[in-house]
Amino acid sequence: MSTFMAKPAEVQRKWYIIDAAGKPLGRVAVKAADLLRGKVKPEFTPHVDCGDHVIIINADKAVLTGKKLENKFYRRHTGYVGGLKEVQYKTLMATRPELAMTLAVKGMVPDTTIGRKAMTRLRVYSGDAHKHAAQKPEVWEF
Predict the structure, then answer these.
(1) pLDDT digits (tens, 9 = 90+) for 23-34
(2) Rounded to whole angstroms, how far apart are CA atoms 96 and 93?
(3) How many CB atoms lie within 10 A of CB 62?
(4) 3-class SS shares of the chain: helix, strand, coil, % to 5
(5) What is the pTM of this model?
(6) Strand partners, 139
(7) How confident is the model at residue 100 (pLDDT cuts 50, 70, 90)?
């Protein structure tokens, strides 16, 4: 018996929708990363991009547990001396919840060409409206 190896041409991609309302940000990000990577499929092959498309709605209603809203920061650097910018997650979730969700998912996919390609299949919306109804996405419950 030989091990099954998926070929890139044989990969069938589906569309899934995840509702983040009332769920922890990290839990939603884990499920999205697994779907983007294709780890929920029985024909998963590590060196082949077998992931699906993921739509995350209600990112503004995702919750952060504990004191993460006050103690957690999103930090970036401009490249100039003294150019460290930091934003508290309380502010980030109020102004740009899509970015907070995208950053959480990005930290959970590998930093390789497969991971970068997988991130192009992620769509995050702060409300419950999205423009991908034509793709007939299935609801992913967890």
Answers:
(1) 999 999 999 999
(2) 6
(3) 24
(4) 35, 20, 45
(5) 0.94
(6) 17
(7) very high
Q: Report in angstroms the alpha-carbon separations of 118 from 43, 48, 77, 85, 113.
A: 17, 11, 25, 27, 8
| Residue 69, Cβ density class (10 Å: 0-12 exposed, 13-18 middle, ≥19 buried) | middle
Identify the CA nearest to 137 among candidates 14, 52, 41.
Answer: 14
* Pairing mode, strands 53-57 and 138-139: unpaired
DSSP state at residue 24: B
| Structural domains in the chain plus CATH codes | 14-64+96-129 (3.90.1180.10)
* Inter-residue contact 17 to 57 (CB < 8 Å): yes
Beta strands in 13-133 (DSSP E): 15-19, 53-57, 73-77, 84-88, 122-124
